[in-house]
Amino acid sequence: MHPPAIEVNDLSAGFANQTIFDGLSLKVQPGEKIAITGPSGCGKSTLLQCILGFLEPLGGSISISGNRLSNESVWKLRQSLAYVSQEPDLGDGSVREFLEQPFTYRANRSMKSNLSKAPEFLERLGFDDCMDRSVGTLSGGEKQRIALIAALLLDRPILLLDEPSSALDESSRDRVMELLASKHNLTILSVSHDREWTQMADRTFSMQPATGATI
Questions:
Q1: Domain with 122 in it: what CATH number?
Q2: What angle, rounded to 10 degrees, do the helices at 140-153 and 170-181 form?
Q3: Strands, DSSP E only, in 175-215?
Q4: What is the C-alpha to C-alpha distance for residues 5 and 186, in angstroms, rounded to an integer?
Q5: DSSP β-bridge partners for residue 9
Q6: Interatomic CA distance for residues 8 and 27, integer angstroms
Q7: In which band, very low, low, confident or very high, does the pLDDT at 107 lie, cut at 50, 70 and 90?
Q8: What domain range includes position 174?
Q9: What is the tens place of the pLDDT at every residue in 63-87?
Q10: Is residue 211 part of a domain?
């Protein structure tokens, strides 16, 4: 039996003297699509930051595919994760340059570029040929979709999404949902206030401020 793709055990997180959540536990099995819901300020995005290793928790533990996240293991475990923020920064080059950029990073240089898959993803998400378009001309929703394509091109087993439909119109959101639903082996943990988005999930995980929750 495979270990959970993500396992969070009795996690506490916060800043300075403020605890944002406490005693939070969560298991996400390989291939599951989980939506995190809850009011603003309850720590949904903070949880993602902890899983990514960007924020050190106050207590508890996080494991990725059975391997505990620590200062020593964080760089290796991040190779299993792809992440799309709510307002992605695409820089100032072309769409092609942005999609190529992750494969130039030292941590990814051993990977074969998947840029040849970009046209298929672009078509499925409603784009015409835009590889040479400046990212500065993209709308907020277009930037979200391009950032998602960049994450999918990395072909990592776990995808973390922070409000992935916040800037999308209904048609674009439906295209994104259809694409992600077709990725049966991809584990997705997404933060969302969008009811339609959460209905796509296999399960929802509801958080409350400074309290624990278990799923």
A1: 3.40.50.300
A2: 10
A3: 187-191, 203-206
A4: 10
A5: 61
A6: 6
A7: low
A8: 6-206
A9: 999 999 999 999 999 999 999 999 9
A10: no
